[in-house]
Amino acid sequence: MRIHPWNTVLSLFFAGLVAVAVWWLFMTGRVFYDVPVRDLALISLATFRLTRLFTYDVITKFIRDWFINSRENSFSHTLGALLNCPWCTGLWFSFMVVFFYFATPFAWPVILILALAGVASFLMTLANLVGWMAEDRKLEVKAKFGE
What is the pLDDT confidence band of residue 32, given thresholds at 50, 70 and 90? Predict the structure, then answer.
């Protein structure tokens, strides 16, 4: 497997960004070590929602589409690959959500909204799954016994 230079550049940029952000949080006294379970759950759900929003949702497809015809091994191709990878975007968004969680109380309404949207997204997916299973079961019964 060949390592593309832009993957390395973005990885080093991410590591540097995290290092600077953590340093700033420590220097300003904004980091604390005891994150309540409730906050951890909300942060997780907010990260889940942001990841899904940018990786899968139709509303942000136009952003992903900017990178479709990018030349292989180009910076824009690497950004496109990043946006289409839920594990990659999840890492970046988890950093951003955690950073803003510690950096400012103004992030809380946004984190809460994203967390609630994450729960709603999960519940809708679950409801769709139940509906599809019921429809499949109904078709099986019709096929077995006729109409």
Answer: confident
